[in-house]
Known about the structure:
Structural class: mainly alpha
Amino acid sequence: MKQFTFTLEKIMRLRAWSEEEARIELGRVMSEKNAVEYALKNAAGKRAAAMKNRFSLSGGVDTMYAYEAYIARLDAEKENLLSNAAAIELKVEAARETWTTANAELKAIQNLRERRFKDYRKNVFTEEEKEINDIRRRA
């Protein structure tokens, strides 16, 4: 019995590699997105704490002005992080689309391989059945 060979095996491996690279890129971009979201939450927490401590009685006017400047810097940082988050969201969507396309291409060729393997097995069983019937007739 001859061994099953899939003529598009190299293409399937190439598509699997491409899908893996797209998945890794999607993970990297998602990691960037999570880092920006964490930084936004951290900045919001710092701002809330600064707002709470701004009018503390122990510091005086100088402390209040320092807190005002700190809050302004945190607001500017928040705006910068929000613009970064929007840009990263576009990257995420592009990477997700790339991965989806690569995954679909890989699945298509894997399905083709499975269909060809089923056909191969069907043909092999049919040939074996014919050989068995020929042996029975001769005996």
